[in-house]
Amino acid sequence: MNPTENADSPITSITSALVDANDQLLAMYALTEVTTDSLDGETAVREILQQAQTLLRADALILDEPEGLSVAVGTSDASERPVAKNSNSPLAPTTASVSVTNESGSQVNLTARRADQPFGTADHKLLTAVANMALGALHTSRLHREAIDQAVVARDHDTASQLAVRALPTWQPDMASVDLFARSDPARAAGGDLFTYAEVGDTLHFVVGDVSGKGLPAAMMMTNVISASLAAFHGSGHTGPAAVLSQIDSWLYEFLSDAGLFVTLVVGAFDQTTNRLRLANAGHSPVFWSADGAFELIEANVPPIGVLPLNVGPSIEEVVLDAHPAGRLVVASDGFSEQASPGGEMFGEERLVATLSANPHRSSGELGSLLYDEIETYADGAQQGDDRTVLILTIRDDAKQERADP
Amino acid sequence: MDIITQENPTETTISLELRGRFDAHEADMFRAAVDQAIDNNNVQIRVDLANVEFVDSTALAELVRGMKRCREQRGDLVLVHPSDPVRVILELTKLDAAFDIV
């Protein structure tokens, strides 16, 4: 300072005001540069308050949410905040408070304190702007966090769905007279339709089923049913499909019942030494059988697993089919018959039977592919309403040759 | 789907009349109606299905769930006058053996 000037001279005052104004401009610039894309909303709010403290020449700024975050700058203890926190409350001369609420109902209260001079109208407006900016930063941060959380859930959902789909077998039985096609297309990433099979000695055991409900919960239950089925094939398969069904029910009934789900399940066993096919059907439809080209519906004789304990309900009766010299079993899920056209009409079982009847000489694979093509043509872009599953078991002496040379 | 509720204040019986499609999209509404009835000690639930055009497996699972909840409370969920499409589904799945149908 020039010794001829004292601190109260006009030049000193103007210089001081210019410096202050420059500091405030810099603070304003810094305030606009505060990044709000951080996951940490508290950090963004603290940066905003630090810049606002300079702009307002405040000794302290305290921001809080009614039941959430509390951030204070300029004081080491948030408990030192002024009593008056509501803009409608009488304010002490060195205290200013505002409360702002956004469209989603979130609210923050912002209080400023300074000792040297009272806050004016412009200060209140600036305080309101800062409070809105802090509220916006918190909102953006939380939206960002929610988006990341949702992405994590979606990724886990995809992984679980892929694992569920991989529970379905893709190999072919090594039996000379058996030609098998099985495919399941879930309506979503994963579904509750299922099939699996296993060769045990001279017998091909298989199941086709449909867990009630859709999506990942049904898919999780589906994998349990597949595991139980494979275990039951080896544990009770020698006794027949009724025993396998009973075994699966004894393992899964309580689990399904507690989850409020049930499973329609047809259990089959084809013995290549006797050419006999035995079925036990717990509520699954449609199941078609043809020995001569004409298809008949094989009805269920017990309710689905999970509805009533099968060991106290109706006895499980097996259907025994003679597959000599040939026979074809087709098990589908309701996603086929209930597929709607763009006009809302369902595909229905009659169209399914018509296609089966018109193609008696096609291999299982050819017929299965034809069915899927037909349903896609029929849907004509209409949304797939449910999982679609088909298992076709063709039994005849030359089936092996057809499979090798389609 | 519409649900029309008729309650008999002197008994523990309630009637739920369903209209339209009963599928996965409507299951939550039906579950809420059944749960509310049972919470109000109306454990004899009559579900009128005469005007239901379609049921899917999710809807059937809700009917089964409601039936089990009622039976746990020594009541029952009875299916009343199921329409032809519903009756066919009940027969194909053998669920007609599990429900009391009138």
Question: Would you mind describing this structure in some detail?
Answer:
The complex is a heterodimer of chains A (about 400) and B (about 100). Chain A is α+β, with helices and mostly antiparallel strands and about 400 residues long. Chain A has two domains: about 35-160, Beta-Lactamase (2-Layer Sandwich); about 165-405, 4-Layer Sandwich (Phosphatase 2c, domain 1), CATH 3.60.40.10. Chain A contains nine helices and 14 strands. In chain A, strands 5-14-13-10-11 form a five-stranded antiparallel β-sheet. In chain A, a hairpin with a 4-residue loop joins strand 8 (about 265-270) and strand 9 (about 275-280). In chain A, helix 4 (about 215-235) runs antiparallel to helix 5 (about 240-260). The longest helix of chain A has about 45 residues, at about 120-165. Chain A is elongated and about 120 Å long. The N and C termini of chain A lie far apart (about 100 Å). Chain B is globular. Chain B has a five-stranded mixed β-sheet. In chain B, about 40% of the residues are buried. Chain B has helices spanning about 25-40, 55-70, 85-90, and strands spanning about 1-5, 15-20, 45-55, 75-80, 100. The model of chain B has no long low-confidence stretch (mean pLDDT about 90). In chain B, helix 1 (about 25-40) packs parallel to helix 2 (about 55-70). At the A-B interface, loops of A face helix 2 of B.
| Helix-strand string of chain B | EEHEHEHE
Provide mean pLDDT of chain B, rounded: 90
Give the overall form of chain A: elongated
What's the alpha carbon Rg of chain B, rounded to whole Å? 12 Å
Number of strands of chain A: 14
Quick overview of this protein structure:
The complex is a heterodimer of chains A (406) and B (102). Chain A contains 9 helices and 14 strands.
Descriptive labels:
heterodimer; A: 406 residues; alpha+beta; Beta-Lactamase; Phosphatase 2c, domain 1; 2 domains; five-stranded antiparallel β-sheet; 14 strands; 22% strand; elongated; B: 102 residues; alpha/beta; Transcription Regulator spoIIAA; 3 helices; globular
